[in-house]
Design brief:
The complex is a heterodimer of chains A (131) and B (143). With 131 residues, chain A is an all-alpha fold. Chain A has six helices and no strands. Chain A has one domain. Chain B is mainly β and 143 residues long. A seven-stranded antiparallel beta sheet of chain B has the order 1-6-5-4-3-7-2. The radius of gyration of chain B is 14 Å and the shape is globular. The termini of chain B are far apart. Classes of the chains: A mainly alpha (131), B mainly beta (143).
Chain lengths: 131, 143
């Protein structure tokens, strides 16, 4: 079985092929799960941004139910998060830490969205996440 | 586009959008005249918070953050324009800090609406269910 990573925009072309991440032990439970992954991520992301509204609170960002649901989706959403982070940098960092157990951002870069995103994108490439 | 349900007192007559949406900085940063960082004292350390100040989501910690850049609490808490004085206001809802706004030289106020636009607005125009109301005004000499 080919375990090469799959970019998010290719996902829907496969009947049931989870995005593979180096070190990932997760797999889709059914073809339905697999087919809906991109849509589910997009829907949850939209809900999260809508729920946050005009709040600046990073606790509101992190504790949002849709954001938490994305975290529960596990490593399979890493390509989608990386894609979002590259195109529309936002505070995905708590999710990335929860999912990967890592934190490559230096404390002196706190609050610097582009620098934080760049470090995580670099981490993604180094860890064979394809998006 | 500002949501008038979240801000029922906003109207076209009392505010003007002054920037595009930008998630790179937020209301606290904007009030502190820093559009390069996102200021928030979250426990995870994702947001910037002035070194040496209390990192907590409390009104007191927000006061401390503005004190760290030269502001002092205005005991009268008067939002009117005073010559030679810069003012910021801290907003809270249910005793939790939500927002900060900065007074412009015209006497109007400027706010960054979370990750969305900056607006200039009248005092009181953003009061409501989203940000609550101003609980403290701080002041410093014009720089």
């Amino acid at each position: 079985m080919d375990e090469s990573p799959i970019a998010p925009d290719k996902l829907r072309a496969f009947a049931c092929r989870p995005p593979v991440h180096a070190g990932s032990t997760e797999s889709a439970q059914s073809s339905g799960d697999c087919l809906s992954l991109a849509e589910k991520f997009r829907q949850l992301t939209n809900e999260w941004k809508q729920n946050r509204g005009f709040s600046s609170s990073l606790s509101v960002v992190k504790n949002d139910p849709s954001y938490q649901e994305i975290i529960r989706m596990g490593r399979s959403v890493l390509p989608f998060i990386m894609d979002e982070l590259e195109k529309r940098p936002d505070f995905w960092f708590a999710a990335l830490r929860e999912i990967t157990g890592e934190n490559p951002v230096l404390p002196e870069n706190a609050g610097r969205l582009h620098e934080m995103a760049a470090v995580w994108l670099q981490w993604g490439r180094a860890n064979n996440v394809r998006w | 586009m500002i949501d008038l349900i979240a801000f029922p007192l906003l109207s076209p007559l009392n505010h003007t959008e002054t920037s595009e949406a930008n998630p790179e900085y937020n209301c606290i940063a904007w009030a502190a005249e820093d559009d390069s960082k996102y200021w928030w004292p979250d426990e995870d350390g994702d947001g910037y918070w002035p070194p040496g100040t209390t990192r907590a989501e409390t009104i007191e910690a927000f006061v401390e953050a503005f004190q760290a850049i030269g502001y002092t609490l205005d005991p009268q808490g008067v939002p009117s324009l005073e010559a030679g004085v810069e003012k910021v206001a801290i907003f809270a809802q249910n005793n939790a800090p939500t927002h900060a706004a900065r007074q412009l030289p015209t006497g109007k106020w400027t706010s960054k609406m979370g990750p969305e636009e900056d607006i200039s607005h009248d005092w009181g125009a953003i009061d409501g269910p989203c940000y609550g109301t101003a609980v403290h005004i701080l002041r410093r000499s014009t720089r």
